[in-house]
Amino acid sequence: MTVPDRLLLVAAGLAGCLGVALSAAAAHVTGGGNLLTAAQFLLFHAPALLALSALGAGGLLHPRLARLSGVVLLLGLVLFCGDLSRRTLSGLPLVPMAAPTGGVLLMIGWLLAGASGLLHRRS
Q1: What is the CA radius of gyration of the chain?
Q2: What are phi and psi of 71, to 5 degrees?
Q3: Is the pLDDT of residue 123 over 60?
Q4: Three-state DSSP class for 50?
């Protein structure tokens, strides 16, 4: 397993951990709907990052495309979930247009994930 694959595994664990933490925070913060949404996105994408890393490293997906998909998904999560969380906790956006940009990156990441299966050639 390559270093980029291992980093995706670490990112998956971090996404899962943050998803659980934000779920708990959402239960204790008034108006925590955005935190709950961010938590759900993190928890839904953590297994996807694990799968992309493992399947890419195992040769079942196009390895570089699977890694690229994971990186794009990760960037999308940072922007989307980071913006929702920061807006809820501090009232300030992460950066202008962070949530919509993150959402588009998440969609692109999923398309790349599908393409990594279609474009894979078995040796």
Answers
A1: 15
A2: -65, -40
A3: no
A4: helix
Tokens coding 1: 């397993």
> What span, in angstroms and rounded, lies between the C-alpha atoms of 46 and 18?
10
Residue range 82-110, pLDDT digits in tens: 999 999 999 999 999 999 999 999 999 99
Residue range 22-41, pLDDT digits in tens = 999 999 988 889 999 999 99
Per the listing, tokens 């990594």 go with: 116
Return d(Cα 76, Cα 33) in angstroms, integer.
19
At a CB cut-off of 8 Å and minimum separation 6, what does 101 contact?
A: 79
Does the pTM surpass 0.90? The reply is yes
Contact present, 67 and 5 (Cβ < 8 Å): yes
> d(Cα 102, Cα 108) in Å, to the nearest integer?
10
- What span, in angstroms and rounded, lies between the C-alpha atoms of 30 and 40? 18
Give the amino acid at 104: V
What contacts 97, CB < 8 A, 6 or more positions away? none
Query: Are 44 and 18 contacting, i.e. CB atoms less than 8 angstroms apart?
Result: no
CA–CA separation, 120 and 123 (whole Å): 9
